[in-house]
Design goal:
The complex is a heterodimer of chains A (407) and B (107).
Chain A (H helix, E strand, L loop, with lengths): L2 E2 L2 E2 L17 H5 L2 H10 L3 E3 L4 E4 L2 H9 L4 E2 L28 H12 L2 H4 L3 H17 L3 E2 H18 L6 H13 L6 H8 L1 H11 L10 H10 L5 H14 L2 H16 L1 H9 L4 H12 L4 E6 L3 E3 L2 E3 L4 E5 H4 L3 H4 L27 H18 E6 L4 E3 L6 E4 L1 E6 L1
Parallel strand pairs in A: 4-10
Antiparallel strand pairs in A: 1-2, 3-4, 5-7, 6-14, 7-10, 8-9, 11-14, 12-13
Helix pairs in contact in A: 6-7, 6-18, 7-13, 8-9, 8-10, 11-12, 13-15, 13-18, 14-18, 15-18
Chain B lengths: L1 E6 L5 E6 L5 H7 L19 E4 L4 H4 L6 H5 L10 E3 L12 E4 L6
Classes of the chains: A alpha+beta (407), B alpha+beta (107).
Chain lengths: 407, 107
């Protein structure tokens, strides 16, 4: 048995096209659209010899694979490593990297804490914070939108919502980036991320314990489930860790990408200004258009088929969510950003039982930012070049100088 | 294909043909039935595909999914014993003719 990146190598079925490409090369991660277009054109599944994986980039198949948790499991890891054959770098997540029935139990606890009703009380605070931050940015000639808004907002509201006593902006943002880089191969992005682990991981673990969380927060709700015997104390700590893995860097990326979309499409920003109730649909379109999480993998847990093509047990399939979100077969004119498209069924939050459990919180955060923006900012303009940051699973801006002209 | 009949809160009836294995939420969206929003796309993370199963059909449809009850608490309209999240009702041949009542609003 030959291994590569912690999973078994395999020979693909003869009818699956072979494509000698590296989806994790720096130029692809920075500007992935041409890779996605060719991935979709070559077929429903493509074999990539460099990492011995299949890749799926068309909407229908990607959605089918992602929705079928019994054939395509998460418990063997959602990156390149197959947990069946080796220990992952951290104890596996008990919600992301797990299958039913264990998943059902933890998912229920998290979903309850993050339901629309459970988080509705945060709306006013999110809005006030957005007002405060944006008001200050309008005063400035120009600003660095990733640090000063995209990071500043979630770091101001999210740790507080979770009830964290300890908050450390750099470590919170970097932990997310690290977890997502770890899903790729052992390239420089993963190695650089892993080099931060000795500093960040102990801090994260410490910040997730019961005594470091205030009573009224989301974290306390998870520990309440431990008190009720639904999960163990150790599981509660692991679930609070999931808030921090998946709840910061992702929304930072979402806000940065939303600003980029609006600065690049002034006509669409005019529509949002004319009707601030488009804030939520606008965010859905930002998600479809930019896909903050661009790729997650699944592992075939049995010999099976996708689109009539044979897939052997143990095969890693890279699901290019960002590519599915740009598939013309599904969206007609995917290259156009339209704030009122209402792209129901986009794959940016995944699909099925593993669909993002924090999506309501992400929507509430972006609704606050985009509503305040529409109400107070006349124009969103670039004040310099936007630069993308390569990451093995996240497509994010590294920096973006912007200018807000007051209304 | 299995026939599903949607009845809006003001009494408008729409009959659609849906594929077995799909779910009622997706059948509504695919056929432009008003009254289903489905913000989360079917991950049981919102309650914007809330519906009422016609009383004649509740036994055939079966019980709520694990965790569905919690999420129904977020529904915009009254939750009744017949309330379901339509993304959790899988379409199968025994449901041919299923009648689904839609609430007045989802948000």
């Amino acid at each position: 048995m030959n291994m590569i990146e912690g999973h078994m190598t395999f020979e693909p079925s003869a009818d699956i096209p072979v494509w000698d490409v590296d989806p994790y090369a720096e130029d692809v991660l920075i500007d992935p659209a041409p890779y996605y277009a060719e991935l979709r054109a070559r077929g429903p599944l493509v074999y990539i010899p460099k990492w011995s994986v299949l890749a799926s980039g068309r909407y229908e198949e990607t959605r089918d694979i992602f929705s079928d948790h019994s054939r395509f499991v998460s418990s063997r890891g959602v990156g390149l490593n197959d947990f069946k054959y080796g220990e992952p770098w951290r104890p596996p997540s008990i919600i992301l990297e797990v299958d039913p029935p264990d998943h059902t139990k933890t998912r229920k606890v998290m979903a309850r804490a993050l339901s629309p009703k459970a988080i509705a009380g945060l709306k006013e605070e999110f809005r006030r914070t957005a007002e405060m931050i944006i008001e200050q940015l309008i005063e400035r000639e120009s600003f660095e939108a990733i640090a000063d808004l995209a990071e500043a907002f979630p770091v101001a509201v999210f740790p507080k919502a979770v009830g964290m006593v300890d908050s450390d902006r750099r470590r919170l943002v970097d932990y997310g980036a690290m977890v997502f880089n770890a899903l790729g191969p052992d390239n420089k992005f993963r190695r650089d991320a892993m080099a931060m682990a000795p500093d960040i991981v102990p801090w994260i673990t410490g910040a997730c314990t019961r005594d470091r969380l205030t009573k009224g927060g989301l974290g306390a709700l998870i520990y309440a489930a431990a008190d009720d015997g639904e999960v163990t104390e150790a599981e509660a700590a692991m679930l609070v860790r999931s808030f921090l893995s998946a709840g910061v860097d992702t929304t930072v990326t979402g806000i940065g990408s939303a600003l980029w979309c609006l600065a690049s499409n002034p006509g669409e920003y005019e529509k949002l200004k004319a009707d601030a109730s488009l804030a939520r649909p606008c965010f859905e379109e930002v998600l479809r258009f930019t896909s903050p999480v661009h790729t997650f993998a699944r592992t075939a847990n049995q010999d099976t088929e996708v689109a009539g093509l044979r897939v052997a047990e143990g095969t890693k399939i890279l699901c290019a969510l960002a590519s599915a979100n740009l598939d013309p077969q599904k969206w007609g004119d995917p290259e156009i950003f339209r704030v009122d498209r209402k792209p129901v069924g986009h794959m940016a939050f995944g699909a099925g039982i593993h669909g993002c459990v924090g999506q309501n919180l992400a929507r509430l955060e972006l609704e606050a930012v985009l509503t305040v923006l529409a109400e107070t900012v006349e124009r969103v303009e670039f004040a310099g070049e936007a630069v993308w940051r390569p990451n093995n699973a996240i497509h994010a801006l590294d920096r973006m100088p912007l200018r807000f002209i007051a209304r | 294909m299995t026939k599903i009949i949607f009845i809006s809160s003001d009494g408008n009836e729409t009959a659609v043909e849906a594929a077995d294995g799909d779910n009622v939420m997706r059948a509504a969206l695919a056929n432009d039935v008003d009254g289903i929003v489905a913000e989360c796309g079917g991950s049981m993370m919102c309650a914007t595909c809330h519906c009422y199963v016609d009383e004649a059909w509740t036994d055939a449809v079966g019980a709520r999914a694990d965790g569905e009850e919690d999420m129904l608490e977020s529904a915009a309209c009254e939750v009744r014993p017949t309330s379901r999240l339509s993304c959790q009702i899988r379409i199968r041949p025994e449901l041919d003719g299923l009648i689904i009542h839609l609430p007045e609003s989802q948000t």
